[in-house]
Specification:
disordered N terminus, single chain, six-stranded mixed β-sheet, five-stranded mixed β-sheet, 48% helix, 328 residues
Length: 328
């Protein structure tokens, strides 16, 4: 009887193991099966645009996967709304809307940094505004795209001089609409960035008052839908591998890359795109410094009361995709 019991126990364990193995194999075989990848970013995001136009993403994903790129994102908040709705799989944007969306329950994952910048973002004042310092913003109409990296920079400016948003007349304006506001003399200044600021300066006689240096480190991130990445983990690796390849090509063929970006940016002058490139440090990392910068934004938003969730950047910054893309 004891031998029979042992035999039955062995059989039961074996069958259970086979079932578990079969389930595991089945689950594994269902991964990385998405047939479409949707990406949202901006025309100035060199490796994303170059990766699209020169076929580096296609090279990675092959003909069985269709790729849809929107290089004219209408603000980071809009990108996060699209990801929340399941309309895009990857988005490239500043950290503030990423954090706000994470705080609101979106399963978003940071895969890597795209660039950092200090002199590409600034306070630009209208020609006759009388604004020559941060303190001069008091009582003035200041345009900014809310829930954006620029919005955080505006708050940093004010805080540095013991001012608050109550001391200014804040005008919520998307970056693309700020030039018209300057032309119509509807604002006194804007916290914005190149190339939008370049057009404002050239067409209205506006001028830069101060950049982000000493006030904030502007960081743009490459993010993905957590749900999509769980179902297609290898696609996160392929995506980052294509970005790295495109970046290498852009550096080796910068003149051609600038022309491609200028064309995508609505036939913008190549000189403007050169300025954009020169005022950003494109790099792909997600180490202690990058994660710390994300946490700094979280802590700042908590202090401001605009974010109530107590987030830990380490829980949604995942460097594994980037490491695998580099063969590490």
């Amino acid at each position: 009887m004891r031998n029979i019991f042992k035999s039955l126990l062995v059989v039961l364990i074996t069958v259970t193991a086979l079932i578990a193995t079969g389930c595991k194999k089945k689950a594994s075989s269902e991964l990385n099966t998405a047939k479409k990848i949707r990406v949202m970013g901006n025309a100035g995001y060199f490796p994303i645009v170059i990766g699209d136009k020169k076929g580096f993403f296609k090279e990675e994903f092959g003909d069985s996967v269709s790729l849809e790129f929107n290089h004219h994102m209408n603000g980071g908040a809009a990108a996060m709304e699209a990801m929340t709705a399941g309309e895009i799989d990857f988005a490239i944007l500043g950290d503030m809307p990423v954090i706000q969306s994470k705080g609101n329950g979106l399963d978003v994952v940071v895969l890597s940094s795209l660039f950092i910048s200090k002199d590409g973002y600034h306070l630009v004042a209208a020609k006759d505004s009388g604004i020559h310092s941060i303190e001069d913003m008091k009582g003035k109409k200041i345009a900014v795209m809310t829930a954006s990296t620029n919005h955080k920079l505006l708050l940093k400016y004010l805080e540095a001089k013991n001012l608050t948003v109550d001391d200014i007349d804040l005008v919520p304006l998307k970056t693309k609409d700020q030039l018209a506001a300057f032309v119509g003399k509807n604002v006194d200044a804007a916290v914005t960035q190149i190339p939008a600021s370049t057009k404002i300066i050239e067409q209205t006689g506006a001028y830069i008052v101060v950049n982000a240096d000493d006030y904030d480190t502007i960081q743009t991130l490459i993010t993905g839908s957590g749900k999509f990445l769980k179902e297609n983990p290898e696609y996160g690796v392929k995506f980052m591998r294509a970005v790295i390849k495109a970046d290498k090509w852009a550096r080796e063929n910068l003149d051609e890359a600038l022309k491609i970006i200028a064309e995508e940016d609505g036939d913008s002058p190549v000189s403007t795109e050169q300025l954009y490139w020169d005022t950003r440090t494109f790099h792909y990392d997600l180490g202690d410094d990058e994660v710390k910068a994300v946490q700094d934004t979280i802590d700042y938003l908590n202090q401001q009361g605009t974010l109530t969730a107590k987030l830990d950047a380490k829980t949604f910054c995942d460097a594994s995709y980037l490491k695998k893309a580099r063969g590490l």
